[in-house]
Amino acid sequence: MSNPAVAQPIQDTLKSARRLAIKRWLPSVLMPMFGILAFLLFWQMVASSIDTSLGKFPGPTQVASQFGTLIDEHLREQRRADAFFERQDVRNAEKLAKDPEANVSIRPYTGKPTFFKQIFTSLYTVMTGFFIASLIAIPLGIVCGLSKPIYNAVNPLIQIFKPVSPLAWLPLVTMVVSAVYTSSDPLFAKSFVTSAVTVALCCLWPTVINTTVGVANLDKDLQNVSRVLSLSPLSHVRRIVLPAAIPMIFTGLRLSLATGWMVLIAAEMLAQNPGLGKFIWDEFQNGSSNSLGRIMVAVVVIGLLGFALDRLMLMLQRYVSWDKHADLR
């Protein structure tokens, strides 16, 4: 038989643990779910009262239906691609059976890009532009943070070019890429290069500014440690500056990635580079009764992917930061 004197404290401890768990989960899980449900309800109520030239504005139910349609279209296109390559393999096998030295052609499938392929294209484009910008911004920010004269020389340029809209950069980038990128067999399409460079130009500045601030505010004790150890300039940057400035550098990287993701959609629309921006523009031009729902699907996906990219950068920051217990939001 269990001893009541022992069982009661255990039960009280379990109840206390459950209460603590509820208090911990309520603000982090239940409240966001409540907020999302309230937004969906508000969206449905407002959508039913809005009439456009293409019909009723789509609510959550219609958008979910169009998302299912886009999945079906993607699966159908995949089956067509598989059938195309199967026919090509059979044709080439028959040709080789008749003549082992015959030249066989392997043609790529040129079907219409699906919604999910355009998602991949947008992610690939934004990460390319973001990587180019980071390669320039982080070293430039470190140099500006370490040298006041260089910072004074570069800062006016940062303040001038930082607020420039991607819509202003895009025509210039398009003309420069067309003039410089003249290969007869280009590795990348000009539209892709144009979008990636535009993204890089617009998401360069947050990383430069935050890296500069992080390096310039280096603790004096750490600088003294570097002097005592007689570290070389490269060792000083690698062992002292970078670990101390990591939080600010990643703050800049997260801001840059968010900026680049927003810029990308406009760049893809105007450069007509395949991606979510072109998908939205094509649906807008199409003007069918389903276009609004499909555009809203793209809008929701853009938001979710932007959130996922930010969380990914946050996880990477936690991994490389020396302070593993920092409350990074």
CATH topology of the largest domain: MetI-like fold
Number of strands: 2
Discrete helix count: 11
Report the β-strand fraction as a percent range: under 5%
Average pLDDT works out at: 83
Q: How would you write the strand order of the largest sheet?
A: 1-2
Structural class of the secondary elements?
Answer: mainly alpha
Q: Which descriptor suits the 3D outline?
A: globular
CATH architecture annotation of the largest domain: Orthogonal Bundle
Structural description of this entry:
The chain has 329 residues and is mainly α. The chain folds into 2 domains: 70-100 and 108-112, no CATH class; 115-320, Orthogonal Bundle (MetI-like fold), CATH 1.10.3720.10. Helices cover 79% and strands 1% of the residues. The chain is built from 11 helices and 2 strands, in the order H-E-E-H-H-H-H-H-H-H-H-H-H. It has helices spanning 4-47, 60-98, 115-146, 148-161, 166-180, 190-202, 205-216, 220-229, 233-271, 276-286, 291-320, and strands at residues 51-52, 55-56. It has a two-stranded antiparallel sheet with strand order 1-2. Strand 1 and strand 2 form a beta hairpin. Helix 2 (60-98) crosses helix 11, helix 7 (205-216) packs antiparallel against helix 9 (233-271) and helix 9 (233-271) runs parallel beside helix 10. The chain is globular, with a radius of gyration of 27 Å.
